[in-house]
Design brief:
It is an enzyme of class 5 (isomerase). It catalyses: Couples ATP hydrolysis with the unwinding of duplex DNA by translocating in the 3'-5' direction; ATP + H2O = ADP + phosphate + H(+). One of its GO terms (biological process) is DNA repair. With 992 residues, the chain is α/β, with parallel strands linked by helices. Helices cover 46% and strands 14% of the residues. A seven-stranded mixed β-sheet has the order 8-9-6-5-4-7-10. Strands 14-15-13-16-17-12-18 form a seven-stranded parallel β-sheet, with helices on both faces. Strands 19-24-23-20-22-21 form a six-stranded parallel β-sheet, sandwiched between helices. Helix 28 (681-701) links the parallel strand 16 and strand 17 (718-723). Helix 3 (36-56) runs antiparallel to helix 4 (60-69) and helix 21 crosses helix 37 (951-967). It binds adenosine-5'-triphosphate. Adenosine-5'-triphosphate is lined by residues 539, 541-542, 545, 568, 570-576, 724, 748, 854, 856, 858, 881, 885.
């Protein structure tokens, strides 16, 4: 969390008086990733530096900047960047940009000096990123304390007959050649592996676990006479710089670093993309299959095929099981083998590739008699048992020992290349690290490892990179996926706990996550305002709406701030549940804020609530509700700000304007965030903490009043988030792992399921759709026409556009009035368009996705979606939810431009269950697509885990995180875990 501050401090160390500049550059470029805590600390740092500057400068500008710095920690991103700009100017730069450029130039200069010294200085890197601090934990030194690991690697190098000369030996060139020739070092390492580490007789994983480091240590102690305990004691190896891996030339090291492999961990996390079975297990070979074989090179030749054209061919003979022979044999265990011939071909164009010397060099690369592993796509050739490969990988196995070693059924890891780095090179380097990885690199406590049946981290790395069997690789994968989810959950819950004061509050919060079944406050216990509001509703609440309100009201009475997600299918009536929660808070003398993603929705909710309040009887003074959006006139918004501060306004509905700095509340008790996933976790957090701070500061103003003596004065507001996107549980956990969940599972009574038609959008298709529209209009219905874009575009001429179609639709449906609604219209124009459609002044509304969220026109009875294939299933389900909200039977027509998209859309015809559809979407397209491009930005990225299939591991990781935090709220008991959490920077993946 305190990454920015730590780095800031380090920068000041590195560059002496220029520390402020480095700090600002760092914060401007990276600081947005960090949480409130670190920003507050940066704010303090900034404050002290500017104070010093001010004492030198008489400038009044400096004073005003100083005042602003005070609110840095809670300011919005744009305000922070404006402030940093001002500080930069104060320091004599033209702008923040200028300062950053200068900082970069300085860095380059330092690097050049370093290069000139021709000696990579690890200590410089140490200084740049010396520590990452989480909360109050002691600093974790990066790139330091790696001596034992380094020495072990050095030992391995000196003992390897192949030898990986270190940088200092001056044999760098030779070593580079070793790599560039394409000779794989991966099987070469087993020379140490086979003599010292590998014991192929022992098949048990347990034996291997012990044998690895002990053997290395033994050999180390023989050489160095150092006590063993000094050797394997380094948990920080994973975050050591790759410069500590000997045998890597400078060139290679910089290649690796350019590809993002800065640390040992980064290399270890470059996982195999698949594994090959080197026993040539295939008995059937089909054209176009991607296969992996081992075999012997029978021929290698370069042929000049024309003046500027040459062919290089390697023929590899491979033995495979001959199924035809075995079929006819009675004793099927006696498996006959036959030889197949692979023709690996490469084509060269250009005169320089036809020269004899060139062709001889190419031939020399692969010598007859070499054992090789070949992978690629096979094509059958006219001659029986001959196959061609044009895109292939070829690894030379050094000798028959390696061949038998790998052929013993061990899966052979196939790595993806990265940034142009050859996968074989990566495999070699990774294999070398795996061999000497100490056993105690695992930050996760043993109890968790045992309880959840996990491999240790050491075994997981070994298992994923050098599995003895596929089941070992699977177990390793499970452990590594567990880690991805675990640190995410731990980070989120830790952050939640950090915000709470007492141990009781913290225990209470964890308890809530442990037992997701919530307690409920019965209706008799609700405040009188809530009961009266309920009475005024034109309908009775459904069973699950009632349960949801009871659960929320119970939460509102607890001393712990609620953090609850109210989830329910489109149109199930979440809004009224949230209104009731607000009434409960207002009834107890507090305030409520209701934040929505669009102005359109804010206006709709505001009008809806006012209408409901108007019908309320028997209420002395009705709650005052305000609407605050970006379009609210300045004068009016100032008045609203003032009334919120004094408490005259009980509830405010609005857009993100509600989280602007100037909005202060007198006693904010609940913040409702509608369409939660549109905002992202950081924004939610900001909303939460901002209001917490402002409410405190408001209260502090009233220090002398009685108010301050109330126990709850320091409590953060309750947060009720709402989502209409039915999200599969695992996805919800990944997105909102720190929230309790309430689901509305039923729909208001009397709803008739929407009939869905999937039609191909050819001439006939359009005709059919228009005729159905006409029938609907004649019967008094209202029709939404939804378009993927507003204007026609040259790039995508096949897309129908709302504005472009307005004329032709108006012409086609003469006698019926058309309206237009899209995102580019001004706020009041949008409101007007929706008002007219709602009142019936317009019968057809041509709209874009802008209506997808929350628009509620109960008597709209038909929706036609143009280019439906452009929308996701979950998105179409949301759109379809705009109709069928009243008692009238509704229809939805999905017009698909291509035949191929029809099957996917047909899922919508079969089901109207949002959860089912969301699960389908998750399985078909993955979580990113389910949430749409923009929103999926809030999803953490998991390099190895797939949310759609690894959901159960996520649940386990959630439980494990709860267990750890239950034992130690601040992770003080688990310093390694705390350091690891800090290192993984879970906060950087929490959202925008
Ligand atoms: N119990 C109920 N009985 C009948 N009608 C209801 C009930 N609850 C809500 N409604 C009505 O159902 C419609 C949809 O409700 P609301 O807009 O709250 O749903 P929502 O879940 O927020 O929908 P969306 O996901 O589309 O935003 C509204 O017109 C509302 O008045």
């Amino acid at each position: 969390m305190a990454l920015a501050v730590s780095a800031v401090q380090s920068c000041s160390m590195c560059f002496g008086g220029n520390g402020l500049r480095s700090a600002i550059a760092f914060e401007a470029e990276k600081g947005y990733r960090n949480a409130l805590g670190s920003k507050m600390r940066f704010s303090n740092f900034l404050l002290s530096k500017i104070l010093k500057l001010c004492s030198r400068s008489k400038h009044t500008f400096a004073k005003s900047v100083l005042e602003e710095v005070d609110s840095y920690g809670i300011a919005s991103i744009s305000d922070r960047s404006k402030l940093l700009n001002k500080v930069s100017v104060l320091m004599g730069y033209d702008s923040l940009h200028d300062l950053i450029e200068n900082e970069r130039a300085e860095k380059r200069c330092v690097m050049n000096v370093k290069d000139a010294m021709d000696d990579f200085d690890v200590s410089l890197v140490c200084k740049r990123f010396p520590s990452i601090i989480l909360g109050s934990s002691s600093p974790v030194e990066l790139y330091d304390g790696t001596a034992s690991f380094f020495e072990k690697l050095a030992l391995l190098t000196t003992q390897s007959p192949e030898g990986f000369p270190s940088d200092s030996t001056g044999e760098e060139q030779e070593q580079d050649y070793l790599y560039e020739t394409g000779d794989s070092l991966y099987p070469a390492c087993p020379s140490v592996e086979s003599s010292l580490l590998r014991d192929d007789q022992s098949t048990s994983l347990a034996t291997e676990k012990i044998s690895y480091p002990v053997l290395v240590e033994e050999s180390f102690s023989k050489v160095s006479h150092e006590p063993q305990k000094d050797i394997v004691s380094d948990e920080l190896i994973l975050d050591s710089s790759i410069s500590c891996i000997p045998g890597i030339s400078k060139k290679r090291r910089s290649q690796l670093e350019n590809c993002g492999f800065h640390t040992v961990r980064k290399l270890l996390h470059h996982f195999p993309r698949t594994y090959a079975d080197l026993q040539n297990a295939q008995i059937e070979i089909d054209d176009g299959q991607y296969l992996i074989f081992i075999g012997k090179i029978l021929k290698s030749r370069g042929i000049k095929a024309g003046t500027s054209f040459s062919i290089f061919e390697v023929v590899v003979g491979c033995e495979i099981a001959d199924n035809k022979t075995t079929e006819h044999k009675d004793d099927s265990t006696d498996c006959r083998r036959k030889t197949i011939f692979l023709h690996l071909k490469k084509f060269f164009r250009g005169t320089r590739f036809t020269s004899l010397p060139f062709l001889r060099i190419v031939e020399q690369k692969h010598k007859e008699g070499d054992f090789v592993c070949v992978s690629g796509k096979v094509r059958t050739m006219p001659t029986k048992d001959h196959y061609e490969m044009r895109e292939y990988n070829i690894d030379v196995l050094k000798d028959e020992n390696d061949l038998s070693f790998h052929a013993k059924g061990r899966p052979y890891p196939i790595y993806p290349s990265k940034g142009g780095l050859n996968p074989d090179v990566l495999r070699d380097i990774i294999a070398r690290i795996v061999q000497v990885l100490p056993i105690n690199v695992d930050p996760i406590p043993k109890s968790i490892i045992l309880d959840f049946g996990l491999l240790t981290l050491h075994d997981a790395y070994t298992g994923i990179h050098e599995p003895k069997s596929m089941s070992e690789a699977d177990l390793a994968r499970k452990r590594l996926i567990f880690d991805e989810f675990f640190y995410l959950q731990l980070g989120r819950l830790y952050q939640m706990l950090e915000g709470l004061g007492t141990q009781i509050e913290k225990d209470g919060l964890l308890d809530k996550y442990r037992k997701p079944e919530s307690s409920a406050a019965y209706m008799e216990e609700w405040s009188s305002l809530t009961k009266k509001f309920l009475k005024a509703l034109p309908y009775a609440l459904t069973g699950s709406q009632l349960t949801a309100v009871s659960e929320i009201i119970w939460d509102l009475r607890q001393p712990v701030p609620m953090n609850r997600l109210l989830q329910g299918d489109v149109g199930c009536g979440k809004t009224v549940v949230a209104f009731l929660a607000c009434m409960e808070v207002i009834g107890s003398g507090y305030q409520a804020a209701f934040m929505v993603p669009t102005e359109l929705l804010a206006v709709q909710h505001y009008e809806h609530l006012n209408n409901l309040l108007e019908t309320m009887e028997d209420v002395g003074s009705k709650p005052t509700i305000a609407l605050l959006t970006g379009s609210t006139p300045l004068k009016q918004s100032r008045m609203i700000h003032k009334s919120l501060q004094t408490g005259e306004i009980s509830m405010v509905i609005g857009t993100t304007s509600l989280i602007a700095d100037r909005v202060e509340f007198s006693a904010l008790r609940i913040a409702v965030v509608d369409e939660q996933h549109r905002f992202g976790v950081i924004q939610r957090g900001r909303f939460n903490s901002k209001l917490y701070y402002t409410s405190i500061s408001s209260k502090l103003l009233a220090t002398n009043s009685d108010e301050i003596s109330k126990g709850e004065k320091h409590m953060a507001p309750h947060v009720l988030a709402m989502s209409a996107t039915p999200i599969p549980r695992t996805l919800a956990l990944a997105l909102y792992g720190d929230m309790s969940l309430t689901q509305i599972t039923d729909l208001p009574p009397g709803r008739i399921p929407v009939e869905t038609f999937i039609i191909q959008a050819n001439e006939n298709g359009y005709e059919d759709a228009y005729e159905m529209m006409l029938d609907e209009l004649k019967e008094g219905g209202k029709v939404y026409l939804v378009y993927p874009v507003i204007e026609q575009s040259e790039q995508l001429p096949q897309l129908r556009a709302a504005s472009a179609d307005f004329e032709s639709i108006s012409h086609r449906f003469q006698g019926y009035s058309c309206g237009l609604l899209h995102g580019k219209m001004k706020s009041d124009e949008k409101d007007e368009a929706l008002r007219k459609f709602r009142s019936g002044e317009t019968n057809i509304l041509l709209a874009t996705q802008v209506i997808e969220i929350g628009v509620d026109v109960p008597d709209a009875s038909m929706m036609v979606v143009m280019n439906a294939e452009r929308f996701g299933i979950a998105q179409l389900h949301q759109l379809r939810g705009r109709v069928g909200r009243g008692v009238r039977k509704s229809k939805c027509i999905l017009l698909a431009s291509s035949e191929s998209s029809l099957p996917r859309l047909k899922v919508l015809g079969k089901s109207s269950d949002g959860f089912y559809l969301a699960n389908m979407d998750l399985l078909l397209r993955g979580p990113g697509n389910l949430l749409g491009k923009k929103q999926s930005g809030h999803l953490p990225e998991f390099p190895i885990a797939r949310l759609e299939i690894d959901g159960n591991i996520l649940q386990e990781a959630h439980l494990a995180a709860l267990k750890i935090l239950g034992d130690s709220h601040d992770l003080e008991q688990f310093p390694l875990l705390k350091a690891e959490l800090s290192m993984r920077q879970p906060l950087s993946i929490l959202g925008d």
